[in-house]
Design goal:
The protein is built from 17 helices and no strands. It is an all-alpha fold. The protein folds into two domains: about 180 residues, MFS general substrate transporter like domains (Growth Hormone, Chain: A), CATH 1.20.1250.20; about 200 residues, Growth Hormone, Chain: A (Up-down Bundle), CATH 1.20.1250.20. Helix 10 runs antiparallel to helix 17 and helix 13 packs antiparallel against helix 17. The longest helix is centred in the N-terminal third of the chain and has 29 residues. It is globular.
Length: about 425
């Protein structure tokens, strides 16, 4: 399953970063309209994430994932047919719905094909393989994409669609019995059962809601800024070229792939919330370095500083990976696992919508340095919120378990 996931990540790495460029510079759509079309990908997630979670609980996460992969493939193929603005909106919506269906089903399925104590490890490894896939896809796209050739982009999106389709037989043939919908017992059909209450039961889980709010906040001040605020600030106030941003992202990807397993070994037996708080601290350092590098006058000093900032950010990513999705799945009962993952994915969608808007407002007002210093402060606030979450979590949920032990080894002070 991790192999199929990495394969589809290669396709996504080849195409998603270039969608705006493809629509505006290759298909000749006004850049403002093209930007709105690209935003449709995220907007589709607001509806698609809860539907994907519900579908996983109703028909099983494997079947829901297959549906999402098929929709994603159709979306990728449809992008190649774009000629007019309405085509761009329609194709982007299909892409967004497909991704919104895939993510919660994928997380729910991954959580069920391993033992609970293995979840931190498998989600951490998935983070490394995804980054490797995105990196390979980005490098491949750099060699294939040609702004003077629409056909080169058609090749990229066709290959992207095929990577989704190739994942389908892996699920059908190799995992035929995985991710089945949980059969409801008589107790489960009682009026107060989670199975009957659906999303209402998830929304009454106050611990999960704390995790949700924290994750939406982290995505807004962290991941979303790497995709929006950072490149805009680096090429604007920072005075560096786009190639420096590319090098910085490549260094980030390499660092995640290289460090994820060693960091996981260090984290095993320790608090999940400690790892999350440390991740926030590393991100705060990364944004301070970014703010300083952006005012160094450009040149090699700025390039080194900006690249170092994303490497430091990568360390935070590796600390976060064993904790976030695995904690959500440890909180989730089996018959609501899809819905928990659907809402958890919605936290990401929310952050990825709010974060770029925040960055655009600050950078447009000429407050680039202030933006990143403010983000650093926000990361420290998030670290304190994480410590607060740790005081509320039961001990067995706040430990990164060892895959070798039946019971988690608690090394907490």
């Amino acid at each position: 399953m991790l192999g199929g996931d990495a394969l589809s990540a290669v396709g996504s790495g080849m195409t998603l970063p270039f969608l705006l460029v493809y629509l505006s510079q290759v298909r000749g759509i006004d850049v403002g309209v093209a930007g709105l079309a690209v935003a449709t990908v995220a907007l589709a997630g607001f509806a698609g994430n809860p539907v994907g979670g519900w579908l996983s609980d109703v028909i099983g996460s494997r079947r829901a994932l297959v549906c999402g992969l098929l929709v994603s493939a159709v979306g990728a193929f449809t992008v190649t047919l774009v000629r007019d603005p309405w085509h761009a909106f329609a194709a982007s919506a299909v892409v967004g719905v497909g991704l919104a269906l895939v993510t919660p089903a994928q997380d729910a399925l991954l959580a069920t094909v391993v033992e609970p104590r293995q979840r931190p490890t498998v989600f951490a490894v998935r983070n490394a393989t995804l980054n490797a896939g995105y990196g390979v896809g980005g490098v491949a796209a750099a060699f294939i994409a040609d702004l003077g050739s629409a056909q080169s982009f058609v090749v990229l999106y066709v290959v992207d669609g095929c990577t989704f389709l190739l994942f389908v037989p892996v699920l059908i043939v190799l995992l035929p019995d995985a991710g089945r919908a949980t059969r409801r017992t008589d107790a489960a059909t009682a009026p107060t059962s989670p199975a009957r209450r659906g999303y209402r039961a998830v929304l009454r889980d106050t611990t999960f809601l704390q995790v949700w709010v924290l994750m939406a906040f982290l995505v807004t001040i962290g991941f979303a800024q790497t995709l929006s605020g950072f490149p805009a600030y680096a090429t604007g106030d920072g005075g560096v070229g786009a190639h420096v941003v590319g090098i910085a992202f490549a260094a980030n990807t390499f660092a995640v792939v290289l460090l994820q397993l060693p960091v996981l070994r260090v984290m095993t037996g320790h608090r999940r919330t400690t790892g999350m708080a440390l991740a926030c601290t590393f991100w705060a350092v990364a944004w301070v370095v970014t703010a300083i590098a952006g005012t160094s006058g450009g040149g090699s000093l700025a390039a080194v500083g900006l690249t170092a900032a994303l490497v430091v950010f990568a360390v935070g990513e590796t600390l976060l990976a064993p904790s976030q999705a695995s904690l959500v799945n440890d909180l989730a009962p089996d018959d609501l696992r899809g819905r928990y993952n659907g809402l958890y994915t919605l936290a990401w969608t929310t952050g990825l919508m709010v974060g770029p808007a925040l960055a655009g407002f600050a950078l447009g007002a000429g407050h680039g340095r202030g933006l990143f210093l403010g983000l650093a402060a926000a990361c420290l606030v998030a670290a304190s919120l994480t410590w607060g979450l740790g005081r509320r979590l039961p001990a067995h949920l706040d430990v990164v378990a060892s895959v070798r032990d039946e019971d988690p080894v608690d090394r907490r002070p």
